[in-house]
From TrEMBL:
Region annotation Disordered: where it falls in the sequence: 129-184
InterPro entries named in the record: Tsr3-like, Tsr3_C
One matching Pfam family: Ribo_biogen_C
GO molecular function, one term: rRNA small subunit aminocarboxypropyltransferase activity
Domain of life (superkingdom): Eukaryota
Keyword terms: Cytoplasm, Ribosome biogenesis, rRNA processing, S-adenosyl-L-methionine, Transferase
Protein name, UniProt field: 16S/18S rRNA aminocarboxypropyltransferase Tsr3 C-terminal domain-containing protein
Boundaries of every 16S/18S rRNA aminocarboxypropyltransferase Tsr3 C-terminal domain copy: 1-122
Polar residues: compositionally biased ranges: 172-184
Biased composition (Basic and acidic residues): 129-144
Gene Ontology BP, a term: maturation of SSU-rRNA
Length: 184
């Protein structure tokens, strides 16, 4: 959290010679960590990535330690370390599926400045896609959804109810209440 520079492929030599480290703590207790007592001459931030761990699934920038280490290893070209770390977790494959395109973009950069620019581009595109989807939804459905249209997710249920009510119906009436068809 004290880092000011994002990790990039340019950090490969630092990692090769010094390794990677994370501070394991709960996001809720981050303020309790005495970062001033931790000697860390090369603090780095991770760029935009989505957590897939069970605790923070779907939350951007809320990676757990394993996800953070795997992402840092992958971005800097240590693929086998990254894969080995996440292979131990059932949700590890989800991390790759959700973040693969982002990781590939970051990995193709040469410097922290390029990774930062890639991150900004990714965030801008996500925001634009969200706005477009909201606008498309409003265009398709007007300002609100038509509640008189049957929900297609309940199609089988509607068909069963219709079949049951058709055989149980004793009389069908017109708008004036007159019986027009009797069945038994």
């Amino acid at each position: 959290p004290k880092g000011t520079q994002v990790i990039s492929p340019a950090d490969r030599e630092l990692i090769f010679h010094g390794g990677l480290a994370v501070v394991e703590c709960s996001w809720a207790r981050l303020d309790d960590v005495p970062f001033s007592k931790i000697a860390s001459p090369h603090e780095r931030l991770l760029p935009y990535l989505m957590a897939t761990n069970p605790t923070n699934y779907g939350k951007p920038w809320r990676l757990n330690c394993v996800e953070a280490l795997a992402a840092a290893f992958y971005i800097t070209g240590f693929d086998s370390y990254a894969e080995r770390l996440l292979d131990e977790f059932g949700w590890g494959g989800s991390f790759w599926k959700v973040n693969q395109s982002y990781l590939e973009q970051y990995r193709s950069c040469k410097s922290a400045a390029e990774v930062h620019a890639a991150q900004e581009h990714i965030i801008k595109k996500l925001e634009q896609d969200y706005e477009d989807s909201r606008r498309d939804k409003d265009t398709r459905h007007g300002s609100s959804e038509d509640l008189l249209i049957a929900n297609p997710n309940h199609k089988d249920q509607y068909e069963e109810e219709e079949t049951e009510s058709g055989s149980d119906r004793e009389a069908q009436t017109t708008g004036s209440g007159n019986i027009i068809n009797e069945t038994s």
